Amino acid sequence: MNSWFPIPSNSDFSIHNIPFGIGTIADGRHFACTRIGDHVLNLSALASTGFFKGLVSDESVFDKPVLNDFIQLGKPVTNEVRQRIQNALSDDHSPLRQMPQLFIPLDDVVMHLPVHIGDYTDFYSSIEHATNVGKMFRDPENALLPNWRHLPVGYHGRASSIVVSGTPIHRPSGQVKPKDAESPVFIPTQRLDFELEIGFIIGKDSYLGSSITTAEAEEYIFGLVLFNDWSARDIQAWEYVPLGPFLAKNFASSMSPWIVTLEALNDFRVSGVTQEPKVLPYLEFDGKRNYNVSLEVAITPIGHEEAIVTKSNFKYMYWNMCQQLAHHTSNGCNVCVGDLMASGTISGHDKGSFGSMLEICWGGKNPITLSDGKLRSFIEDGDRVTIRGWAENQEKRIGFGEVYNRIINETWPGLAAQ
Ligand code: CA
């Protein structure tokens, strides 16, 4: 499939992608949009030309500040919307070719959080990450807890503090207990960290009291985003027993603005690792349910060049999304359109593929040097952290773009603009 529209050859946003997002231009009105190369295609304006006639009866779904109502139309409709756009962009005689005003240069568009997230759940599904953290926080000999290979461990996170890429992140303060101190103190975190994750957006409501099987799960997954689950390790280490993450995690999480549909990633399915011991029947699955998505994280100290600090891959996940969703609903818990489920930190086998500074610098023992010449064990004020992700083969490239944020504190409000 080729397009008459100019698309840079290495673009994440090839004609094979056609993700969905929410944008505004100078007039401040929100519109649903997709991205093609370095341009944003306004779907609200496209709908008003009659482009979606016979497919979308209520075109106001393209004028909302979030995509929930659009997603609620269901995959038979949203997949067809995507396909109709693809066909028009590849058809030399498409009327779309006479409508250059619908294609807005990327720099003229502000992208927003694309969905209203009712509930956010974070899993812990990378065996390498869980092992690394277990070694550091607990017992090197028994790093994985006994339940870990039997169920996808997760917890309910906080939806209100999920922000879109570009939003400045405030360094949180909290209660930490310095080593050897008798009592805790309340201070700005000294161990601010990123977590390299991928999130998936629920595309279909389920009913309270019913469960989603692994075979049905993909019907409920609208698409994927890059996700940074910001973490304060010193707060985490002190607070997490016995109920798990709380204030060390809920001060902010950030996501990329473009939702890449599950269908766009279909050619990048791969098998995950063999799960041993065998899982319980409700967690068994058929087919290839992992995805080969390359991931990288860069840190950019203020005024300096970025440095890539890790390269990982979504395919490393021990528990796949279908198992996560089947487990999440196995007790009858319902899920709703717009809910976000995140993978948990995605680490590979070796140091170069670890998904957090905690692991890369091994709890502060092995700091790395960045382009400002200074050592880093964790994230400093002024640092910008960027996560990128893409799937690629000889025929196509489908990328997520990036999720980036800079860290500010109260004494540096000017940093917010940079
Ligand atoms: Ca996490």
From TrEMBL:
Gene Ontology molecular function terms on file: fumarylacetoacetase activity; metal ion binding
Domain Fumarylacetoacetase-like C-terminal per the UniProt entry, residue ranges: 121-407
Gene3D superfamilies: Fumarylacetoacetase, N-terminal domain, Fumarylacetoacetase-like, C-terminal domain
Domain Fumarylacetoacetase N-terminal: 16-114
Keyword annotations of the record: Calcium, Hydrolase, Magnesium, Metal-binding, Phenylalanine catabolism, Tyrosine catabolism
Pathway terms, separated by semicolons: Amino-acid degradation; L-phenylalanine degradation; acetoacetate and fumarate from L-phenylalanine: step 6/6
Enzyme Commission (EC) number: 3.7.1.2
Name of the featured protein: fumarylacetoacetase
Protein's gene: fahA
